[in-house]
Amino acid sequence: MRSPRAAQRAAVVVLLGAGALAGACAPEESASPRLVPGRKAADADSGVTVETDAGDDAPAGPSCSNGVRDGDETDTDCGGATCPACANGRACAASRDCVSRVCADAKCTNDAGCADGTREGFASATTFPNIAACAGGWSVPGLGTTTTPACGRAAGNDSANPTGQGCNVADLCQVGWHVCETPAIVAAKSGGEGCAVSGIADQSAFFAVRQAGSGGAMCGPGSNDLFGCGDVGEPPDPGTCAPLDRFSNDLCASLPATWACGADGENELGNVTKTASEGGGVLCCRD
Q: Average pLDDT of the chain?
């Protein structure tokens, strides 16, 4: 016969064992309810329906990175309303489908040279594949150092922003193009011809490059005056500026009223803005 003390110890052991088994079998209070992949589940506390993670049995939807042309893509994983814009040579339906913002013959291209897809000088991209005269305005001052686009190239006289609010001169050139820098570069990009073959006539327009000078209508170091091609403006010094054929004169006095060069007569290059699409723009050269 067991003593009362031994019986008491046995009862404690039995109770502890039962508690351990119950703990092992009971669910954790903090555990989340199991969700079925690809289904909707209601939150027990809030009653709000939430999406669960899609599983292998859930159908895959359109994606911009699945290597398949689906959704409203115009080419594989690009174009349309939600996917990134397409590179040159890829299929497109509208300008928004292209990094270059130009869709021609259902293909993205940057042959226009101008961000809005239209040229106002050196009009034939076949004859002049490396230079274009691009009209439009810009509100961010300067020609010399504004080399990075400020408004995503959403500028140009045929764009939705013809006065170029929030844009600089770089925004007038298409992806893969830039504002031409010097007379020598204009000569090279135009096949040695320069302004003489630009076809800018009867436009009352001036198309600037990044070239300036120290004064006296001469091209060279400095930030005085603007130089380029056009049918308005004064003739520059031919010895230093050829093949460019026009310059701005002091404070852009010889250019259309759409040009504004500030109040410093020795820094037109740094202060110039253009308040409307009329009156020209810049020359753009292929990178």
A: 84
Say which residues have a Cβ less than 8 Å from residue 200's Cβ, sequence separation at least 6: 120, 121, 133, 207, 229, 230, 231
> Are the C-beta atoms of residues 271 and 261 closer than 8 Å to each other?
yes
Q: Quick check: 80 and 73 in contact, CB under 8 A?
A: yes
User: Is 136 in contact with 150 (CB distance < 8 Å)?
Assistant: no
Q: Report pLDDT digits (tens) over 113-163.
A: 999 999 999 999 999 999 999 999 999 999 999 999 999 999 999 999 999
**What ranges do the domains of the chain cover?**
69-109, 131-286
Helices (H), the chain: 4-25, 183-189, 238-241, 268-271
Under DSSP, the state recorded for 20 is H
Q: Report strand pairing: 206-208 vs 280-286.
A: parallel
**Backbone torsions φ then ψ of 269, nearest 5 degrees:** -60, -35
Q: DSSP character for 139?
A: S
Number of helices followed by number of strands (H, E) in the chain: 4, 14
Distance CA 29, CA 186 (A): 76
pLDDT of residue 100: 77
Strand, helix or coil for residue 14 = helix
215 phi, psi to nearest 5 deg:
125, 175
3-state secondary structure of 186: helix
User: Which residue has 């020609």 as its token pair?
Assistant: 143
Cα gap 171→85, rounded to integer Å: 17
C-alpha closest to that of 177 among 101, 110, 119, 125: 110
CB 172 within 8 A of CB 161: no
CA nearest neighbour of 136 among 283, 270, 272, 276: 276
Give 220's strand partners: 212
